[in-house]
Design a protein that fits this description.
There is one protein chain. The protein is α+β, with helices and mostly antiparallel strands. Helix content is about 40%, strand content about 25%. The protein folds into five domains: about 150 residues, Beta-Lactamase (2-Layer Sandwich), CATH 3.30.450; about 110 residues, PAS domain (Beta-Lactamase, 2-Layer Sandwich), CATH 3.30.450.20; about 70 residues, Helix Hairpins (Orthogonal Bundle); about 150 residues, Histidine kinase-like ATPase, C-terminal domain (Heat Shock Protein 90, 2-Layer Sandwich), CATH 3.30.565.10; about 120 residues, Response regulator (Rossmann fold). It is built from 19 helices and 22 strands. A hairpin with a 4-residue loop joins strand 6 and strand 7. The chain is elongated. The chain starts with 18 loop residues before the first helix and ends in a 5-residue tail after the last helix.
């Protein structure tokens, strides 16, 4: 016996088949549905349901005054958890949360007007939570047998996945475009055989100057690049499909409207963009502006070359005096020379050793000054005194080369604040240059004048002049201005760098001018002038020892140096003892109580600083004059020596006149 709600398909053919929803409709209890039993449904509804159940598109129909809801298998997934309770229910009850969005469309359909929506956003709750969805659908009126609209029919496709995928792609594209725009390297995409700019990034615009590029062919957008080979490379890559890679390639760009062409250097790649068929459709440009790197590399290479040239010249200049020293020493070793030749050999050794000492001192000076380690002791100095001191030092060279020196000193007294030794060194260096680079018998003019608040010391010569290409760098360290082919004048070429640094320490400035090679040159030094006033009288140095010998102890682990120094001092009438380490030197000092002790710092057992402290602490030697002899001449080395108790600090090889002056002061403290 069949139940009241059973609806076998043989009784209702329009419900036959229809998949899961057809079976559910046949088995459904329709007693509570506003649609009533299917056997009572009008023919129009039956026809619509029969078509809907056998369609693979998501569909539903809402019928009658209360819009009873019927749908097919494909629509069931759209309902989510609303299925299967939605079958036969009221349209409004099923989609209550989106009713405000779809009700106007339903009304239009029930009035006989079909509607179509594409990607309508709807916020649904079909899985227990609200979610954003998008649908493409149409609402169509369904008429009964009398031609009146009795319901509505919907065919729909959910577009949520597609919309979200497109949004994700758009976000990814936007993210990639942002990365493209913000990339530190230059990026651009060119399309077609004319290389039309499609996109560029900010770095590319910074390189070529901000101008409108998009939509323009490369030759039109960058006309100033014509003839530099870039357009031809683009044509080649487009034709061949082969990429091109360039490294530090120069490009001249007009980066400002109406401005001059500016040279930049770029690393870049022209990468062909292939279409679906493998044809070249465009070119991807990627690279970097390496102008700064290129210039730094060029400067480093130039500095390295200058350093190598300097070291080669240093080796040359140090070997030059070694040759005559070695030869003279070998002659003296033979022991069969007459007094005249012995004197001649000795003079050669002394002169060449003095030259080597000067070279080393120049190196030490320029190192200290350029590193900011040099200290100057300022006092009020007459400019005339500085000039006279420099002339006195350079006079032997001027006379040897038979130069005519003219002095033009202003009668107006001028005083500057500075270190006398350093300022004399500045002027003597410039005079030395003039003497060296002026052919024998030439003319050197030294003029002193006042220009406003500055004292100007100018040295002019009629010598070999300076190449205009070298002139801007003449005061740079390691810049070798070869003013003669054979460099017979000697020297390290660092004197002018030292001059510039020393003058700067005094608040002044230097300049060089020359009309060109073989047309002479002029060097000028400008120093701030002090308020006019009398300059203090400087006492003349007395290098002769006072009457009577001085007892001297030399402590040095270099036996040759110690013995030679002792012999030299004995030749000047002093009594000298020698020890070769700190322990025996200390013991001998306690026994003999020397008046002056010349102590090497680098001793093998205890260093010279510790030895000085012990001597100062001992009653027998507390009042002795202690002189440090060392190869280290930095200011901190002098400070350490004074802290240890030394009275004086001399750099090896010690200046003989300075040593004799120290010994003379032991006998007469008034000696200067």
């Amino acid at each position: 016996m069949k139940t009241e709600h059973a609806t076998p398909s043989e009784w209702l053919p329009f419900l036959s088949g229809g998949g899961q929803m057809g079976a559910m409709m046949r088995a459904h209890d329709w007693s509570t549905s506003p649609l009533g039993h299917p056997r009572n449904w009008p023919q129009a509804l039956r026809t619509t349901v029969g078509l809907m159940l056998n369609s693979k598109f998501p569909m539903f129909v809402a019928w009658g005054p209360e819009l009873g809801f019927l749908y097919n298998d494909s629509y069931a997934s759209i309902l989510g958890e609303k299925h299967p309770a939605a079958l036969g229910s009221r349209f409004h009850d099923i989609w209550r949360e989106i009713w405000a969005d779809i009700h106007p469309l339903i009304v239009r359909a029930l009035k006989g007007e079909a509607t179509y929506m594409d990607r309508l956003p709807l916020r649904m709750n079909r899985h227990g939570y609200d979610e954003d969805t998008w649908f493409r659908f149409s609402y169509s009126p369904v008429r009964d047998e009398d031609g009146d609209v009795a319901g509505m029919f919907c065919a729909c496709v959910e577009m949520t996945g597609e919309v979200l995928a497109e949004r994700y792609r758009e976000q990814e594209n936007q993210r990639l475009m942002t990365l493209f725009e913000q990339a530190p390297g230059i990026l651009a995409v060119l399309r077609g055989p004319n290389h039309v700019f499609e996109i560029t990034n900010d770095s590319y615009l910074q390189l070529i100057g901000r101008r409108e590029l998009i939509g323009k062919p490369a030759r039109e957008a960058l006309p100033e690049v014509a003839g530099q080979g870039f357009f031809e490379l683009l044509d080649q890559v487009y034709r061949s499909g082969q990429p091109f890679v360039g490294h530090a390639v120069p490009v001249r760009i007009q980066r400002e409207a109406g401005g001059d062409l500016e040279e930049r250097f770029v690393d870049f790649v022209y990468q062909p963009i292939l279409g679906p068929k493998g044809d070249v459709e465009g070119i991807f440009v990627e690279g970097s502006d390496v102008t700064v790197r290129k210039r730094v590399e060029d400067e480093l290479r130039a500095a390295s070359r200058q350093k190598d040239q300097f070291l080669a010249m240093l080796a040359h200049e140090l070997r030059n005096p070694l040759a005559p020293i070695t030869t003279a020493a070998q002659l003296l070793q033979r022991g069969n020379m007459d007094p005249v030749r012995i004197r001649h050999a000795s003079d050669i050794i002394a002169r060449q050793a003095e030259h080597m000492t000067s070279l080393v001192n120049d190196l030490l000076d320029v190192s200290r000054v350029t590193r900011g380690l040099a200290t100057i002791e300022k006092e009020e100095l007459p400019v005339a005194d500085i000039v006279n001191g420099a002339v006195e030092q350079v006079r032997p060279l001027l006379d040897a080369r038979r130069h005519e020196l003219t002095l033009d000193l202003t009668n107006q007294p001028m005083h500057v604040s500075g270190d006398r030794t350093r300022l004399v060194q500045v002027v003597s260096n410039i005079l030395n240059n003039a003497a060296k680079y002026t052919p024998p018998g030439g003319r050197v003019d030294l003029r002193v004048r006042r220009d406003g608040d500055e004292a100007v010391i100018a040295v002019c010569d009629n010598g070999q002049g300076i190449d205009p290409q070298v002139l801007p760098y003449i005061f740079d360290l390691f810049t070798q201005a070869e003013r003669t082919p054979d460099r017979s004048q000697g020297g390290l070429g660092i004197g002018l760098a030292l001059v510039k640094s020393l003058v700067a320490l005094h608040g002044g400035r230097v300049a060089a001018n020359s009309p060109g090679l073989n047309q002479g040159s002029e060097f000028s030094v400008r120093l701030p002038v002090m308020q006019d006033g009398p300059a203090p009288e400087l006492a003349e140095g007395d290098t002769a020892p006072a009457t009577g010998p001085v007892r001297v102890l030399v402590v040095d682990d270099n036996a040759d140096a110690a013995q030679m120094l002792a012999t030299l001092l004995e030749a000047h009438g002093h009594e000298v003892s020698v020890e070769y380490d700190g322990t025996t030197g200390y013991a001998r000092a306690l026994r003999e109580r020397p008046e002056v002790m010349l102590l090497d710092i680098g001793l093998p057992d205890i260093d010279g600083h510790e030895l000085a402290r012990r001597l100062r602490a001992a009653r027998e030697t507390a009042d002795a004059t202690l002189v440090a002899l060392t190869g280290y001449g930095q200011s901190e080395d002098r400070d350490r020596a004074y802290e240890a108790g030394f009275n004086r600090h001399l750099v090896k090889p010690a200046d003989l006149s300075e040593l004799l002056r120290i010994l003379a002061q032991v006998r007469d403290p008034a000696v200067r």
